[in-house]
Amino acid sequence: MSSTSKQITASALPAGLLADIEQAGYFPLLVADVVAAAVGTESIESHLVHSETTIDSETVRRHVTVFVLTGSRLILAHADDHAPEPDSPVQHLGTVATATSETVPLSCVRGVMLGRVISDPVKYVEGSFGREVTLTISWGAVSRIDLLPANCADPTCDADHGYEGTITGDDVTVRVSADADGDANLLQAQAFSTALSAAIGR
């Protein structure tokens, strides 16, 4: 960890969170400052740092999301890099970074879902939980509607029964793989999911 990061955020962020931000390697000073500003004076109970790289036809783009759980809030900080808009005054710089923080009261978090992928379940070892998890957190800002044609019990019926479906909260989803992200990040994702699930049940 660089001494600069310690000097800027040591009073606000715990060492473990700073280390994970540093490990993600995406403008750590910027990300740490955004997280610290959003957390304020509250103590941090748990955290998760998730980095992702996407490749399109022209460039490689990076993205990092930091999840922070405090006694009363779920805080998300996002940072991305992208090309500036054509009329932007910083267009000549080539690439810019944007950082955003979002605060959700724990009373508004509707659900925490942790999906696990278990390879070769016949040989499953108790307590291992697999090598990959998908964490989905919903608080009502974004919902997904899945619709299907409605059917009745009569197999000869050809009437139009409209549609039926489900509305699923899906505000943020991250996938953490031990093979891609490391065992420590996988364990941290599981620990964060457990802490957040317990917090919204208080």
Automatic annotation (TrEMBL):
One protein family per Pfam: DUF5998
InterPro entries assigned: DUF5998 (IPR046040)
Protein name from the UniProt record: Phosphodiesterase
